[in-house]
Amino acid sequence: MTNPLVLASGVWGLTGGNLVRAAKEGAGAVTSKSCSLQPRRGYGNPSVFHWDNAVINAMGLCNPGVDEMLDELRFAIKNAGVPVIASAFGNSFDDYARMCEKMRSVKPALIEIDISCPHHEPGKKVAKPFACVARDAAQVTEVSKEACGKVPLCVKLSPNVSDIGEIAKAVEGAGADAICAINSVKAMVIDVDARRPVLANKVGGLSGPAINPIAVRAVYDVRNAVEIPIIGTGGVTTGRDAIAMLMAGATAVGVGSAIAFRDRVFKRIAEEMEIFMRDKGYAKLSQIKLEE
Ligand SMILES: Cc1cc2nc3c(=O)[nH]c(=O)nc-3n(C[C@H](O)[C@H](O)[C@H](O)COP(=O)(O)O)c2cc1C
Fold it and tell me: How confident is the model at residue 117, as a pLDDT?
């Protein structure tokens, strides 16, 4: 990677063209929108709402299904010129294994599994996300890792847990090669004039600058629990936010909602990081650490 900035999943990566554009705009790596075995319509509108310093969304993981996404991924892998990360989710352990098997066929740089969504096997009631129960997180990692073959596996964790370090340890123990932390924070916004939630789904995920301190704390907790690389994601909008992620223990830095807040966001964050490093006398990223 020419810089440590990774386009986060779902924000700009539904098509191969968008992934290529993010790379051209300066992302060091790009992640595709999470997809599933079957196409999903997602939730109705309003599904995204953003204000001064945050975004809330309940898109409902709309996607055209893995077979169509594979074409988008092939296009991105051929044209982006940066590593492409393929993101997958499913309803069951078996779904995740089948998704990883399909995705490895296009040889992405990394397969990322989004395990933060509620899941339900046909006929069963909706269960807690795999990311919220250490045993489930380990099991989904194990089956996915086996299905990934030679492609390394990144597991994306949820902040909506009491001890993210425990979950991180479980997925590392089950064979994860990297961790992405964090997904969006469970939230709700109410329009008091209309006396109803702003999102059609009522509840959604909060992202953007407002969640940055939550993400930094989560990455710090994950770093204290595991040795594997971490893509620190959540509210990174400026070079200083990205530096804070690295100081918390991240290896690379995810950027998602910031594209709604700043133009040329990847180039500007990278430039701000460079200026910070020059001013403080850092020669390489690995020197960026908290004071002992
Ligand atoms: C509109 C939107 C859609 C998202 N879709 C996905 C998704 O499909 N898969 C996933 O793992 N994360 C998804 N995310 C979460 C982001 O990848 C990221 O983890 C989160 O937004 C925090 O980072 P940010 O504050 O930089 O956006 C989505 C976020 C937003 C705002």
Answer: 79
Q: What is the mean pLDDT of each run of 10 residues along the chain (292 residues)?
A: 97 93 97 96 94 94 96 98 97 96 98 85 73 96 98 98 98 98 97 97 96 98 98 98 98 97 96 98 96 86
The catalytic residue among 35, 100, 117, 148 is: 117
**Active-site annotation holds for 117:** yes
For the chain, give every domain's residue range.
5-44+57-186+203-287
CA distance 69 to 280: 43
**Ligand 1 centroid to 148 CA: how many Å?**
23
**Alpha-helix runs per DSSP H in the chain:** 16-24, 66-79, 93-104, 134-148, 164-173, 212-225, 239-248, 265-280
Task: Give pLDDT, residue 8.
Answer: 98
Q: Of the candidates 163, 161, 174, 24, which has an alpha carbon nearest to the alpha carbon of residue 96?
A: 174
How many angstroms is it from 291 CA to the middle of ligand 1?
31
Assign a CATH topology to domain 5-44+57-186+203-287.
TIM Barrel (3.20.20)
Q: Are 28 and 7 in contact (CB under 8 A)?
A: no
Report yes or no: 112 and 31 within 8 Å, Cβ to Cβ. Answer: yes
Give the residue, by CA position, lying nearest to ligand 1 atom 26: 256
33 lines ligand 1 (CB under 6 A): yes
State how far the alpha carbon of 96 is from the alpha carbons of 64, 72, 84, 217, 243, in Å.
Answer: 17, 19, 19, 28, 33
Atom of ligand 1 nearest to the CA of 235: 25
Residue 122 pLDDT: 58
Q: In the prediction, which pLDDT does 199 show?
A: 97
Which atom of ligand 1 is least distant from the CA of 10?
5
The residue whose CA is least distant from atom 14 of ligand 1 is 10
